[in-house]
Amino acid sequence: MTTPRPRRTPAPTRRKPARTPAATLGGADLPAIGTGTWVILPTYNEADNIRSISAAILASLPGATLLVVDDGSPDGTGTIADELSAADSRIRVRHRTAKQGLGRAYLDGFAVALGGGATTIVQMDADWSHDPATLPTLVGPIVDGSSDLVIGSRYTAGGGVVDWGLGRRLISRGGSVFAKTVLRLGPNDLTGGFKAWRAPTLASIPFEGVHAGGYVFQIEMTFRASRGGARIREVPITFRDRRVGQSKMSRRIVVEALVVVVTLRFDEVRGRVVGHLPHIGRRAPDEIAGGPIPVAIRDSPGPTATVAEAPSAGKGG
Length: 317
Fold this sequence. Notes:
Blueprint: E1 24-25, E2 28-29, E3 37-43, H1 50-60, E4 65-70, H2 77-87, E5 91-96, H3 102-115, E6 120-123, H4 135-143, E7 149-153, E8 160-162, H5 166-183, E9 195-198, H6 199-203, H7 215-227, E10 232-236, E11 238-240, H8 251-269, E12 305-308
Parallel strand pairs: 3-4, 3-6, 4-5, 7-10, 8-11
Antiparallel strand pairs: 1-2, 5-12, 6-9, 7-9
Helix pairs in contact: 5-8, 7-8
């Protein structure tokens, strides 16, 4: 009698780990979304927001570099930003020893980003008024080469504002209409601060000639880009009032904006616009691939700024 052979238990089938969609193309790794992009985030007393907004920005653009420009916040925002930078090489911090205005903070951050080799530069608020989930849509027209400046617009089809009273709505919308009419500009939202710039376009603007105020800064930068021949596009956004803290809008800022808008138009009519821009034209996005764009910035007298950089592994985003 023949003894039956014991049956062999088949070895368990090993499943190959699922590959993340769009992680590779033809066997080659694709760069992370936001590679080459620098996001400039000015802060003043944003300790309650800085952690969450930084995480959300880098979740939307994982390949980006986030530059926090802190104006010596007494609530410790700069210290928290340093902690975030120590833990994540994509985050850098620019420390300024005193509050010098939103416009000056942006210009300072722009100069650092241009010097660091950025190809796309985003400016946005740290108070959650600008939704980080919109960032890929904002930078898209810059990356594909179809635009030089993209404005996150509240006043184009699909855009809007929530959590604002009638007075604030009138100031914002009225300011945009006034500037659009006086300066003869195309975009509908001229007072908003959620923008993406193509680096050569931003570098062509002479920073030393900009009225580096708060509210008017947004209008003037778009004006100068437009007069330089920039291709400007608006994408719709929903603007929400800040989650935590108080608005930094003041009557003085509004008056300053009105005066500067009229001055810009007056100077242009008389042919005396400071730092008149050359025609920007349709330059390829890879023009700056060979190295940083030289840029000069004349800061106001007084406090100096220092940069706390993350480890070199994250340099250039």
